[in-house]
Write a structure and sequence with these properties.
Layout (H helix, E strand, L loop, with lengths): L1 E5 L3 H12 L3 E6 L14 E4 L5 H6 L7 E4 L4 H13 L5 E6 L16 E4 H13 L4 E7 L4 E7 L20 E8 L2 E3 L12 E6 L4 H11 L2
Parallel strand pairs: 1-2, 1-4, 2-3, 4-5, 5-6
Antiparallel strand pairs: 6-7, 7-8, 8-11, 9-10, 9-11
Length: 221
């Protein structure tokens, strides 16, 4: 997979290292020439330039890339890069970093953003996950706000324990993605028995999320 990342700061660099380690082709675009001399990003291709400029994106032949990640610390830059990638080059998937949660509403398909990742929201979700066992936690917003990834940790005194997944009346527009048990993920089936401490991951919609929350609250009693 070919991935272009705009912004070689801590976020962009971390993403680049992970992708290279997983054998993907990565191009980092950054304005600062000194970034190219970094020794901690072996295997990454570089272009020093402004990713908001159409000529720069034409030079890298962005239409040949599968994914564009806008990971700078400036929300305006991330929106412009996503819009150009989608509208001018037809990139299949764009991921935009949201720095200021107040700007999150703009990171949608109108600006060419397929997936918006808000670092403050994600950190908040991870904190809530640690302290709010038994509550539904929203982790990511996908498809321009039309789909959520959410997580629920089963309390050890929950009424769900011992029931099979197929016996819980999950709402429509909700799909169970995975269960993590003892740090091991597995795909859930209707016959799997729920245990205390299970982390259950769902894909759901904004309309179905309140229904899912009510089902989980009722099932834990």
């Amino acid at each position: 997979m070919k991935v272009m990342i705009a912004g070689a700061g801590s976020v962009g660099s971390s993403i680049a290292r992970e992708l290279v380690a997983n054998h993907h082709e990565v191009l980092l675009v950054d304005l600062k020439a000194e970034m190219e001399q970094r020794a901690d990003l072996e295997g990454v291709k570089w272009l020093i330039g402004d990713a908001c400029e159409l000529a720069v994106l034409q030079r890298v032949q962005l239409e040949d890339y599968d994914v564009v990640v806008s990971a700078t610390g400036d929300d305006k830059v991330n929106l412009v890069v996503s819009l150009l990638a989608k509208s001018e080059f037809g990139v299949r998937r764009t991921v935009g970093r949201v720095n200021n949660p107040k700007n999150e509403w703009m990171f949608d398909d109108a600006w060419g953003v397929d997936v918006a990742v808000s670092t403050p929201r994600l950190m908040t979700a991870l904190v809530e996950e640690a302290v709010e066992v038994g509550d539904l936690v929203r982790l990511l917003t996908l498809k321009a706000g039309e789909v959520y990834m959410v997580e629920f940790t089963v309390p050890h005194d929950s009424g769900m324990i011992g029931r099979t997944i197929g016996r819980v009346p999950w709402p429509e527009e909700t799909t169970l993605m995975a269960v993590v048990r003892d740090k091991t993920p597995f795909p859930p089936s209707d016959d799997d028995v729920i245990e205390g401490g299970d982390e259950i991951f769902f894909i759901t919609t904004p309309q179905a999320e309140p229904l899912l929350r009510r089902v989980l609250q009722a099932a834990t009693r």
